[in-house]
Amino acid sequence: MKFNFHVPTAVRFGIGVVDGLGKTVAPYGKKALLVYGGSSIKRNGVYDAVTKSLKEAGIEWFELPGVEPNPHMTTVDKGWQICKENGVDFIVAAGGGSSVDCAKGVAAATAYDCSVVTLMDNHTPVTKALPLFVVLTLAATGSEMDSGGVITDTVKKIKGGVFGPALAPTVSFLDPSYTYTVPKRQTAAGTADIYTHTIENYFDTAKDTYFVDGVAESILKTCIKYGPIAIADPENEEARSNLMWASPWAINGLIGCGRNEGWSLHGMQHPIGAWYDITHGEGLAILMPHWMRRVLNDDTLFKFVQYGVNVFGIDPNLDPYDIANKAIECTEDFLFNKLEIPRTLSEIGVDDKHFDEMATDAAAGLAHGFVPLTKEDVIEIYKKAL
Ligand code: NZQ
Ligand code: ZN
Fold this sequence. Notes:
The protein has 386 residues and is an alpha/beta fold. The protein is built from 15 helices and eight strands. The model has no long low-confidence stretch (mean pLDDT 97).
């Protein structure tokens, strides 16, 4: 095994931690940009808690509200202009992955003093950015502890983004009670996103990853156990806490140590998101069983058997292909019956009009996946998922 692992983000976890936000950010300057999405943080008290803490610490703040789910480059550039005109020192993102990603784009665009599109087009590794503080309200993307921000270029119809070491948040505040108001559908989609991040790492050809496989299996089991509980009982602290703490570990690099990290499902989902603005986790869940069936072969069978036995408790004495197929059926049962995610792309408003463009975009990054996929493979998976 050979890898680099570095996660500089500090975490404050638990109910009430946002009270300490103001004191934590104070050494970083006097002027903040507060980035958030629609009205959810105003309805559930998060906005009041954040601004109270900033006020008490004597921080002046400007606001970038209205970040779209699947944030647009134009919104990021609006934030860059606000920072530039007002000499903003640091950014506070309050919301789900979209607000955090948008804030990362603003942090980078401001440091480089250019449109985020320039950074996206040039694939600039982001080594300078304004300090970013995160108040998370949805357990899903792991953006609260990783170094990437996904941004949609609405002109080129590409979900690209900004990536680089300077984008890891400085401190993330994770209060599980802030996720009590996440609607059932977003809770399901967020859980599916955590699950998929783990699957993207776990389904890998490396065979010497016993330790990180165990961590990955624990994250998968956490989603299976607590996703349905959080849906049925939104204010269940145990369920919300476990999902919130599982989220960053699925993507912060730990479970990717020693692996190739193919990320095929995200590679196929992002082009759909760019064309149809769908909920990220739902697109991933719909594609997952079709991708699994496509990549199951004699070389990959060992991983499906391990997954079936260790995650779903399937009898290890069964025929290996029976175990693998049962594991895929268990995955479907979890995603579509327990989480109640729609089963098909048609149900979430996707049609086959842009399969060609989407598959071209996806296939460009899928040559090194768990099983390499061509444009034709991707179209086949899209068709089955339709
Ligand atoms: O906009 P508001 O009003 O806040 O409502 C949001 C939004 O409608 C709502 N919501 C969030 N927290 C809530 C809440 N509603 C009630 N109570 C709360 N506590 O949920 C909706 C979805 O929010 P969003 O931030 O879009 O969801 P998510 O966290 O799933 O983020 C999705 C974005 O992250 C990207 C996705 O592609 C997508 O653009 N990703 C980012 C990654 C990263 N940075 O590492 C990795 C992921 O794979 C993913 O690609
Ligand atoms: Zn994801």
